[in-house]
Amino acid sequence: MRNPFSAMAVARVAGSEDDAGGSEFTVETDAIRRATAHLTEYLDAPDSAAGRGPGAVLLVLGELGTGKTHLARQLVRTAAARLSDPTRSLHIEATAENVLSTYQRFLLQLGLERIRARVSEFYADIVAEQLQDTGLAGHAVDLLRRREVEPRKVVDELRLMESQLLRRVHRELSDVTENESFGKALTLLLRPGFEDAVWKWLTGGEPDVILRERDITTRIAAAPDVLEAMGVFALLFGGSRRRFVLVVDEFDKIFSLARHSDDRVMLAFQKMLEVFSNAGAFLVLCGHPDFLTMVDAGAKQRITHTVPMTGLSAPQARQFIELAQRAEFGQARLEPFTPEVVEYVTTLAGGNVRRVIRMCHTLFQMTEGRGLVTDEMVRAAAREQLGPLSADEVLSSARRVLVHNGWTYQPDHYLSLGRDSRVDFWLTFADRTGGCAVLFTDSVLTHPDVEAVRRRFAAVRQAHADAEVVLVVNGVVAGDVAPLLRGVLGREPVVYSGRRFADDLQVAVQAAMSLLPAERSADPAGLVQQRIDQINRQQSSLYGFIEQLADHIDGLRTSSDRRLAEIQHQLTDLAAGTPREAASVELPGSVAQLFDDALGVLEENTHTELMTREAFARGPEASRVLDAVQRRQRTPGYLEALGIVALLQQALHTFRDGVQQWYADVRAREGGGELSAGAVEELDEICRTYDAVVEYLPRHKLDPLVQLAPWTARGGPVSDLSRPSRRASLRQHLDNLSSSVRRAAVRSQTFR
């Protein structure tokens, strides 16, 4: 039975151009109601005397997995249902690359033809005004007002003075966009032969000679220029009794990078917000709550509305489960879940939408279509799904915090003979008596879990009466046992969160240290010396890391040179033999990139071919390489993980071949234009087949590959630092791949 819940828990929302033909459902939350109400108020507002309705800036803030992207697309769907022109309701998923790539994605959705059509509307109004002033060709004026005739055709047939009219267009566009260069460039779209040069410049390319001759000399590439350009198009497509809605998802990522690289970004950002509001446009920016800390008071004053994302309630989670099963099986039902189980899942997941869906996926898979989900299953799924990192990675993160602060610590330390007296880190401070024990545990879900923490806490206090205890939870704390846990510790535990963990742990240790009794006999001069020693340890740690990083980069360079030599060797062999027959249809770049990334991330974590080649290579290091190969093969779970990778690689290659064949069939059968419903259904079937093939592959068992350093960068703390990013990369490129391929395939075929 197919699992109706996504393993990646990224909602595939229909109604946008990249998801035509898909099913859709939305559980209405308070955040969705509020954001939709703000948008509806904007769409319903009367036009002002100046011809522009009141603009607005909406900020949607939420943690990862709270449904920001789903809400963003819901707003675009709502606007698209009200606005006849599809260019006036756009959704951009920003990347962490840079502001320019987001702007280019924005322009790609607008398209050259739509921009030229909008400029042509200005031309039509000016030609109509000219004819109306002279009292000539009243019928032509009506046709121009209704956009039923091209203004250039009217100008040619009535032998009007084109150069004078285009100068008026230039002045009008310069006034509207508040930018002389854009006024010139957009006016050139009305003249044959300039389209390619103007489009290249608009999308961030260097201006061609024909543009430089017209004083368009600056490339649109720096973040402030890009933000200004986005405001220009808000002015162009908003106003004049028009409505324009732009939704930018994950804006906090690109803004953070741009802000650190250019001091002018903050002022440009304020200007962009002001321009969107003055243009009568509706701008939605989605991001993490930390985004508010990045902007200054001037920018905050220009944000009209702020909508925080809230977690799912138990009734909302139940509604989601029923809708998901209706979409998959044609019938809304709650089984194999019960109302009590749904409430338990929602509580453990903290209402986080992505966590709830992943839990549902795991629990549905556990039942295998037989029986109901039990509380014990929920706890097992929570321990598997809700712990963000392995224990080793959390310990490594904590160790970096301790080293960074120059604190003296002993890892994996026993305070007495009892097993419960083992602490993960024991910290001592020169000017304090006693010490601070840092304990780690996974999710605390039941009373026995709390009792285990109580025993460890008591063992620490029995060994050192003055000791303070900081508990780090790698997972979640169930709501019903949270008060008991606080009662044991006397403080809140530190629950691991990737973005805040370093700060949270540092604050918790400093608070614990402040509670330790001061060392009365401490010598002031000695304390100063100890503080200097602490600073020296911090500097030594930093210098050591820089040296390790330099060694790591050298290793990567050596590995790259070796791989380049191998590629050249393979190309030589290929040239000497019979070349493979080229595929009849190449995949579009965006689709091919998804497959390349998925296969690449598997290769990055295995390097089996390179490892085997080096094992058979002769040289002074042959025995050392062979020992390294054998150590990897003896690592628990390593060979099983390689088997899973082999199956995934085979499935990915076959999936790619299937999509490539689909492209060939569609283009041969339908040519260009919009995709038919039948073609979309064929693509859906290919994607569903891939999901079914890989659904029961235990991808969590790939973790031994992540625990080992990459073969090309073996050993050292720097390779340890790459573990979280490599684990995240595996999830990013493998989870929910079929939905990503579907969106990219539909988008590329629709906009060919």
From TrEMBL:
Domain annotation AAA+ ATPase: ranges: 54-310
PANTHER family given in the database record: GENERAL SECRETION PATHWAY PROTEIN A-RELATED, PHOSPHORIBULOKINASE _ URIDINE KINASE FAMILY
InterPro entries from the UniProt entry: AAA+_ATPase, AAA_22, ExeA_AAA_ATPase_DNA-bind, P-loop_NTPase
Protein name: AAA+ ATPase domain-containing protein
